[in-house]
Amino acid sequence: MTRDPIRLQRILDEKEHDTYRIKGKLAEPTVCPNCHAVYHKGHWQWLDIPDGADEHKCPACLRIEDNVPCGYVSISGAFYKQHKEEIMGLIRNKENREKTDHPLNRIMNISETADGLEITTTDMHLPRDIGVALEHAFDGELDYHYESESNILRVKWSR
Fold first, then answer.
1. What single string gives the DSSP state of each residue in 20-38?
2. Whole-angstrom Cα distance, residue 125 to residue 70?
3. pTM of the full predicted structure?
4. Residue 101 domain-assigned?
């Protein structure tokens, strides 16, 4: 059996950059004392809190506590100012749908900027989903930038 040396080197070069990812398995069940997500069957889930559960902060709550986002969404342009309520509704709906199945995918902060809005998130999936939803609903220009060395996704949407 021959091995592809380039592919093998890429595998060896890959590094885990997310310091908030839990190394190894937690005791089951474990509950996050902040958000009450339950670690069960290797995943954080929204479940009833079992009696006698261990406690450990989930990665999302740790990121929020340390103010270390994993994703950014920047929204800019005159269209945002004219349709602010619609856009905010779309963003909140997208977060609620994502967070229902994935407790670690949350918005950390939403702040107004001179030209629009800046959103920070606890993961990379939610910024991508927000950007795609904005583009689908309102057209505009969508741009992604992944910073592999810091494991951050930056999404920019404007119209």
1. TSPPSPPPSSEE-TTT--E
2. 10
3. 0.85
4. yes
